[in-house]
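anyone seen this seq b4? input:
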Amino acid sequence: MVPSEVDVSGYINAAEGEIVPIEAPYRSGATSLPYILRMSGKQYFMKKLRPEYVDNVQYRNLFKKEFEVGEKIKHQNIVRYEALREDDKDVSILMEYISGATLEQKVAAMPEYFTKRANIDKFLIQVLEALDYMHKEHIVHCDLTPRNIMFTRVNNDVKILDLGFCYCDSYYNTAGRTYTFAAPEQKSVKGAIDARTDIYGVGKLLEYIERNIDGSLPRLYKGIMSRALDADPSK
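predicted toks r here
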């Protein structure tokens, strides 16, 4: 496998109809557990509500919210939401399975990848095109972290994952935040979340890359990062 095709996703070849757990920390969450499901010859990523929350109406509704928002999104750089399964004992979401590496994994395995201007250009353009699409649909992701950005094994294309914390017009609040990557308005009771919240998130992603690669970002992106991370959304 050539370096540009690094794959550290822990690909699992599940048998037909088999549900296989994925070992933490790969895409596991505080309220969910990750699995692989093979059905009709195709593999899916399955996000299941943790057993201790199955009887909690709030957490069930948050799963349904995530699916309902995700299902209407059709963009090549955003993970596809396929189906919601729900009964008295279980709630789960099926999504496309992506073989590749998260931003966190890719920086660790291939720090030199992000020192090349063409690679940073491609990464940032794809992230911003996906966010522009979401914002036009009145959705704010609100959780752009290195674990929620994936690179496909083939062609290193970006896939934005996990709409569990998203904000949209139909739902008046979000489920939470990843504190170290959250914008100031997400940490304030009076903070108003809008599209600029995700622009701050993009700045945090660039900051993460800058801190974890051998070398530094091109000068242009240092300026973009600095402006995106301004605590004042109007700036």
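Residues 117-136 form the longest helix (20 residues). The helical segments are 57-71, 103-109, 117-136, 195-212, 219-228. kinda curious what u guys think
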